[in-house]
Amino acid sequence: MIVMEMTSRWVTFPAEGSRMSFVLFNGRLIMRVYTCKPEYLTKALELSDKKAERLLSRMSVHLHSQLVREGYSPQEIMAIQLQIEDEQLQDWRARVAQMRKQDRLWVEQNTHLANRSSLN
Description:
By secondary structure, the chain is α+β, with helices and mostly antiparallel strands.
């Protein structure tokens, strides 16, 4: 569910459960605002220097430079990266579970490898 807040020509879309909000002006996307959940900020503050360095090394250079330009603190940047990685891990786990479920169905049906259709 997306909740809109309208003020004159500005529209803000806070994406529920997401790390981003979108700001529209006259129907054109002008800004993406990154947010992090408090639990990720706490995790980022607890990271050792070595783990923080590893975390930032996995981050996209473009995203990192954008967040630095927008004035995010290093802890906020690490929290956003932690949240991104957690979301990606959850997506990966869901895809693997789907593939395993499909594989079990094929085994139960005794489907030959040549007759199996892809998941996509």
